[in-house]
């Protein structure tokens, strides 16, 4: 995986000051699965993160890889991969990667891809591509927190001392990763989780396929496999109906932060608001008898959201200084920090500002455009979930018999119902924000298409309890909806997308099991080889002192441990400390 310290380095190449500097940063090539630095995989960046620098570093690292398939993960892979091989023609011939004889696939890491457009999320996602298991591609980002502390020293060093220092630290990082590859504590725990989810998602896929005609499954399977073989084929994970455009009008860059633009601030804030809603829903469904794993997952979600809120609120103060006064005056500020729950934190987006509070019209305009597109998407989601639920009910009534089958079918229908309810709440939140912004920005006419969504409006097109007096819900009469296809085609498209995603989830977890089995085998093989390597070191030196000879005895430990000869019944290995006696 390609990684870098600044995700906006490409955009800031011409603005980043490099006068008097031999290097402005470092780029690395890492193993995206195990987070180890590759040989020849570290290079200097002279003026931001230019393509030519990253191309050279990547080619240097790929020289040692003789593989038929290479997966490259990069946070801007969607734009970096374009014309990549044309740019490679300017590189020395010895550095040219074997792209004609190898299958090279490009991905965007799972965390970074959330900030990309929908097309990137389907074409560059680890979730939908084969042979990657549950790899998230984010592992290299973790390493920067370890090496960033060295920058204050290396920035004043000469080139030789700086490179040696970085080599030492990166080598130490790799060694720590090797010692952390504990079969029991690390890989075994991952295997238990992978086997569990493989079974669960395989059963879910099987249950879903029982509601679909075999001919359709065969057709969809052929489409997915065709796309997996050749990404130029139509992407089966994209809806075949028109989507509402969400483009913002391009304007002058008035960013007050190097990493977050005004529209980026609003987008992140809206995303955080959605995460707060999801967390509230999760906490509301918590039972009194949750398992330790479920409790740990919930605590992880809370901690992750709190970190994101803290970082976002700090940047928000640059663009909206008034929020500092609002937070101090609010009841939240009177609480102790540890009592303030992240799902209750008030973000103070422009739509939430009280009347009479100074308002930045640029920020408000960004939120208006984003909210309007978000409302249209939420309405499309409601319609999609209603179609899918209707299909599930019809199949259940026609084909499912018995308590076991009915229970499983109800579980699937309840999951769709839960997603539909979340989309309804999302639409209502967005309309409330539009109402607040509409008064401040003097927007008119939007209420004609974004009507209040009542519970009585959330019903399928053919769901009329009183045929003589019933009417079609306004959500199906929206002029912006795609009416070029029949209702059956819409339902089939919703089911197709659900099937493609369910199949991908089952396959990714199955691949994860296979990858973990191979990793376990390779870890044992590596430990045996390293034990033999240490054994050979004994004959290279003659030591007469007793402490030195005792130290040589410990050179047998890796071999004995890897062979299972020194593992006690408790499974714990009592290794000596690394502190050597004074005479050594």
TrEMBL record:
It comes from the Eukaryota. The keyword Membrane applies. The chain crosses the membrane at residues 56-74. It holds the Pfam family KDZ. Keywords: Membrane, Transmembrane, Transmembrane helix. PANTHER family: CXC3 LIKE CYSTEINE CLUSTER DOMAIN-CONTAINING PROTEIN, SI:DKEY-29D5.2. This is Unplaced genomic scaffold CY34scaffold_864, whole genome shotgun sequence. The lineage of its organism: Eukaryota, Fungi, Dikarya, Basidiomycota, Agaricomycotina.
């Amino acid at each position: 995986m390609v990684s870098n310290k600044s995700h906006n380095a490409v955009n800031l190449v011409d603005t980043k000051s490099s006068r008097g500097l031999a290097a402005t940063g470092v780029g690395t090539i890492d193993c995206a699965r195990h987070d180890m630095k590759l040989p020849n995989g570290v290079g200097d960046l002279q003026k931001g993160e230019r393509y030519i620098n990253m191309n050279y570093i990547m080619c240097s690292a790929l020289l040692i890889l003789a593989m038929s398939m290479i997966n490259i993960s990069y946070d801007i892979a969607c734009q970096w991969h374009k014309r990549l091989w044309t740019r490679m023609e300017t590189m020395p011939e010895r550095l040219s990667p074997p792209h004609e004889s190898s299958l090279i696939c490009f991905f965007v890491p799972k965390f970074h891809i959330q900030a990309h457009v929908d097309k990137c999320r389907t074409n560059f996602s680890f979730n939908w591509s084969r042979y990657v298991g549950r790899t998230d591609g984010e592992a290299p980002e973790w390493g920067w927190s370890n090496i960033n502390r060295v920058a204050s020293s290396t920035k004043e060093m000469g080139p030789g001392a700086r490179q040696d220092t970085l080599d030492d630290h990166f080598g130490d990082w790799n060694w720590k990763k090797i010692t952390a590859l504990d079969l029991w504590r690390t890989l075994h725990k991952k295997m238990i989780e992978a086997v569990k989810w493989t079974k669960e998602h395989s059963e879910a896929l099987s249950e879903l396929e029982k509601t679909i005609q075999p001919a359709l499954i065969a057709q969809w399977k052929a489409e997915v496999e065709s796309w997996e073989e050749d990404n130029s084929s139509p992407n089966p994970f994209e809806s075949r109906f028109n989507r509402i455009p969400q483009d913002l009008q391009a304007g002058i860059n008035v960013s007050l932060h190097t990493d977050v633009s005004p529209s980026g601030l609003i987008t992140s804030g809206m995303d955080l608001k959605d995460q707060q809603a999801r967390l509230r829903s999760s906490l509301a469904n918590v039972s009194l008898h949750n398992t330790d794993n479920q409790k740990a997952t919930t605590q992880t979600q809370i901690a992750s959201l709190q970190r994101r809120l803290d970082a976002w609120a700090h940047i928000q103060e640059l663009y909206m200084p008034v929020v500092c006064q609002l937070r101090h005056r609010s009841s939240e500020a009177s609480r102790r920090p540890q009592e303030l729950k992240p799902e209750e934190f008030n973000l103070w987006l422009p739509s939430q500002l009280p009347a009479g509070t100074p308002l930045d019209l640029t920020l408000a305009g960004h939120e208006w455009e984003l909210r309007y597109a978000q409302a249209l998407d939420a309405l499309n989601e409601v319609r999609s979930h209603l179609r899918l639920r209707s299909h599930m009910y019809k199949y259940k009534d026609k084909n499912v018999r018995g308590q076991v089958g009915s229970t499983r079918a109800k579980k699937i229908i309840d999951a769709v119902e839960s997603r539909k309810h979340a989309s309804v709440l999302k639409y209502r939140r967005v309309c409330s924000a539009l109402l607040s912004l509409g008064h401040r920005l003097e927007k008119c006419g939007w209420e004609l298409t974004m009507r209040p969504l009542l519970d009585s409006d959330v019903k399928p097109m053919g769901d009329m309890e009183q045929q003589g007096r019933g009417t079609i819900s306004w959500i199906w009469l929206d002029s912006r909806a795609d009416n070029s296809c029949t209702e059956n085609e819409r339902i089939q498209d919703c089911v197709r997308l659900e099937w493609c995603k369910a199949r991908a989830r089952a396959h990714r977890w199955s691949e994860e099991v296979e990858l973990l089995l191979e990793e376990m085998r390779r870890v044992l093989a590596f430990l045996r080889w390293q034990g033999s390597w240490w054994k050979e070191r004994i004959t290279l030196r003659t030591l007469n002192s007793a402490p030195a000879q005792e130290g040589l005895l410990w050179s047998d430990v890796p071999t004995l441990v890897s062979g299972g000869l020194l593992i006690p019944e408790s499974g714990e290995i009592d290794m000596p400390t690394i502190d050597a006696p004074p005479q050594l």
